[in-house]
Amino acid sequence: MSHQETHGFQTEVKQLLNLMIHSLYSNKEIFLRELVSNAADAADKLRYEALTKDELYEGDGELRVRVSADSEKGTVTIEDNGIGMTRDGVIEHLGTIAKSGTAEFFKNLSGDESKDSQLIGQFGVGFYSAFIVADKVTVRTRAAGHAADEAVQWESAGEGEFTVENIVKESRGTEITLHLREEEKEFASDYRLRSIITKYSDHISVPVEMWQEGTPAQEATEEGGEAIPATEGHWQAMNKATALWTRNKSEVTDEEYQEFYKHISHDFTDPLLWSHNRVEGKQEYTSLLYIPSKAPWDLWNRDRKHGLKLFVQRVFVMDDAEQFMPSYLRFVQGLIDSNDLPLNVSREILQDNKITTALRTAVTKRVLGMLEKLAKNDPEKYQTFWAEFGQVLKEGPAEDFANKEKIAGLLRFASTHTNEAAHTVSLSDYVERMKEGQSKIYYIVADSHEAAANSPHLELLRKKGIEVLLMSERIDEWLINHLTEFDGKQLHSVTRGDLELGELEDAAEKEAQEKLETESEGLVKRVKESLGDKVAEVKVTSRLTDTPACVVAGAGEMSSQMIKLMQAAGQAVPESKPVFELNPEHPLVKRLDMEQDEEVFGQWAELLLQQAQLSEKGSLADPSAFIKLMNKMLLAGGK
């Protein structure tokens, strides 16, 4: 008995369908690429399942995808004999988008069609691309190994709901029929479909077939010509149908590599670069790795699936095999085809398999090598990569100790040398420019580029012409905790304890500093007594030239940026007191030193401390108390 039900689409699907129809008008033909790609995946999945359950083939092991058109009815049909779907599978896969964070993705859509189509490209459109050209889509499917009467028909006009009913289907697999809109009838032409398939689907390892009409017999002509026998109509493959990665690099064109990338990533844009390698010897495997040119929309979602497609001896085994790619390289797309892993490998076996570890090490080195080469040979293109994926790469030093130096060489920062917000300075650039006698790489981490660039902590270093790296991304404090040196040079924060200028400080400066400290002992003691336990220590600064005071983190204390990170993650942070540094040469500090009234002295000391904390943290625990104190001092000064 046919059992029909009507279901509403998930809200996100409705939004996506609306965008499909309105935003992707400039590149409509990609619907065929997406549907053929899905059909080929279904065939791959069946081939893998049938390794242990041969009966799933049902006596038909010739896997293929068939495309046909009916110009009178205005329909295009894409049919495969792959894994197929059950009723529950149909409702789940064709009614919802099972991607975490989809609601967030739709918030980012602007209503500007050209920008939105770029975003959709990064989202991956798959099945729903059918609605770019069709005003109704019918899907008939039966899961391999299920009875003919357990098949399902799904149908929708793409407007908010779909129907599902049980049908009888003798053959396994999925058949998708697109009822074309009036203005899209050009796609119901065999010639048009052939040209799209050869353009987009040559690299697919399953044959993509179209019907080739037979020819009638021709009788011999009188001038001694031969009779031509009739030929029967047959299904003919339109693509090479060999796995692209098994071919020699010299035989594969750039266009084929680019199309294969779009097939595996469902991205619209061409990749930035790729690397195709066959390795023989102790281990035998082929890898084809791509660096995308645009970051996927959900790159920062921790639940996002990532990883390589895994093939074993050219048989597709699994998607998103994250065991071969460290998390900080999660933007890499591609595949690995191993001759050494067992065909029935599972994620659990991969987890602690020696072959997996060796492949992961090799593939990671390959990606880092690709990026090093790009940075060296095409710095401009590397900047494009850095703008998209730099923050992810910064997770590397914490995650991959073995490649820490390699990753450090790929990092880019803003710096006082360029005085620009663009992240173009590498650690090697910095080391090359280090002053004679300089033994440390100086950096500052702040809430924004402006806060870093204008920090009072840089005053002395600027005066001496010493370069400082300016860091202002949320991950920088985390990075710097794991990247403590580069090329044998320690990384040193200008907001911590002693500046440690070493040989950069000449004897005369040292002597002047010591003299200043001796002369200011009374002032330092008074300020410490006045502020009490609000500060850990009060001392005379060596780092300020134009600012009256600053606060720094004491030795072994957490920096203000790390405290913010921990608090943002909901972690309790032990209370830490700053070291308060005074600049006795500044007029305000001189004014403080001359103040005889202890109460007024205390108010001035408090004001300078809060100013310094505001400059360092960008905020205060009690801003209104600071404003009251500030106003009081202003009024007192005006009398």
Automatic annotation (TrEMBL):
Residues 27-184 form the Histidine kinase/HSP90-like ATPase domain. ATP binds at residues 34, 38, 80, 85, 99-101, 122-127, 174, 347. CDD domains: HATPase_Hsp90-like. Pfam families: HATPase_c_3, HSP90. GO terms for molecular function: ATP binding; ATP hydrolysis activity; ATP-dependent protein folding chaperone; unfolded protein binding. Residues 565-639 are annotated as: C. Residues 1-347 are annotated as: A. GO terms for cellular component: cytoplasm. Keywords: ATP-binding, Chaperone, Cytoplasm, Nucleotide-binding, Stress response. It is found in: Cytoplasm. Belongs to the heat shock protein 90 family. Homodimer. Molecular chaperone. Has ATPase activity. This is Chaperone protein HtpG. It comes from Shewanella insulae. The lineage of its organism: Bacteria, Pseudomonadati, Pseudomonadota, Gammaproteobacteria, Alteromonadales.
